[in-house]
Design goal:
Helix content: 40-55%
Number of helices: 5
Strand order of the largest sheet: 1-2-3
Strand content: 5-15%
Structural class: mainly alpha
Distance between the termini: 69 Å
């Protein structure tokens, strides 16, 4: 019988990335995160993701077609979404669009300037 779920324990980075690239789906049942880098890696490796609708996932990946989010803690919906994704034929997973450091810094400087302007009454 073919293995459906792999419990690996610790893997070095190279082996982990190989495993994610071969996977049909990544489950990301996190309840808290700031920037879900593992989801970004998964998408760049062509592997879709199912996760909870926590702010970090919703902000960064909520509109991405290869990321399916369900209400936090809803294990039934999480399971159903995972099974639905596994039933689909393998589809091309488009990597998310990432802003450059320059774009991020320009936005940050703009926010700081706006805040200073509000504080000084300009």
């Amino acid at each position: 019988m073919e293995e459906k779920v792999v419990f690996t324990g610790f893997l070095d980075r190279e082996r982990r990335l190989e495993l994610v690239a071969k996977a049909r789906l990544m489950l990301y049942p996190s309840y808290i995160d700031a920037f879900p880098y593992a989801v970004l890696e998964s998408l760049y490796l062509g592997t879709p993701v199912v996760g909870y609708r926590i702010p970090a996932l919703d902000i960064y990946y909520g509109k991405h077609p290869s990321v399916k989010l369900v209400d936090e803690g809803n294990i039934s919906a999480f399971t159903v979404e995972a099974l639905n994704m596994l039933k689909k034929p393998d589809e091309f997973v488009e990597p998310p669009k990432i802003r450059s450091w320059r774009e991020i810094m320009d936005e940050e400087v703009s926010l700081i300037e706006k805040t200073i302007g509000k504080l000084s009454g300009h």
